[in-house]
Amino acid sequence: MSHAPQGSAGATRTCPHCRETILESASVCPACRHKLRFAEPTSTATTSASTPLRVEGSFRNPVDNGAWEYSMVLTIRNERGEEVARKLVGVGAMRPDEQRTFTLSVEMNPAPTGGKRTWH
Ligand SMILES: [Zn+2]
């Protein structure tokens, strides 16, 4: 994990509700969806996040099948193909006639201005 300095693009903090590492600029925790207090009084405009990527898929285990186990793994790679993050989201089992829906969404926001851009 790379740690960007506070106030710059990619700066992170820990959600006080679920302890996930989230963006410092987030006003709502994407993990637990709790509202977070805004630390910066300067940010007046609340830009709605765009979701340039959203993938969803459902799997149903046939009735005449045995149980299946699954692992949901997410990876993030940079432009050189190097793995930046790899996360096991969840594991579980589907018994016959059970269904699971897996959704992946990527939210993007313009980075808060003011801090100097350290990327590229
Ligand atoms: Zn949270």
The shape, in one word, is: elongated
As laid out across the biggest beta sheet, the strand order is 1-2
Identify every distinct bound molecule in the structure, by name, code or SMILES: zinc ion
What is the first-to-last residue Cα distance? 17 Å
Helix content: under 10%
Major beta sheet, specifics?
2 strands, antiparallel
Strand content: 35-45%
Structural account:
By secondary structure, the protein is mainly beta. It folds into two domains: 1-46; 49-110, no CATH class. A hairpin with a 5-residue loop joins strand 4 and strand 5. A two-stranded antiparallel ribbon has the order 1-2. The chain has a two-stranded antiparallel ribbon with strand order 3-6. The mean pLDDT is 84. It has no helices and six strands. Zinc ion is lined by residues 15, 17-18, 20, 29, 31-32, 34.
Tags for this model:
single chain, 120 residues, mainly beta, 2 domains, two-stranded antiparallel ribbon, 6 strands, 0% helix, elongated, binds zinc ion
Summarize the entry for a quick read.
With 120 residues, the chain is an all-beta fold. It has no helices and 6 strands.
Secondary structure blueprint with pairings:
Elements (H helix, E strand, L loop, with lengths): L11 E3 L6 E3 L26 E11 L7 E10 L5 E12 L4 E10 L12
Antiparallel strand pairs: 1-2, 3-6, 4-5
Bound molecules: zinc ion (ZN).
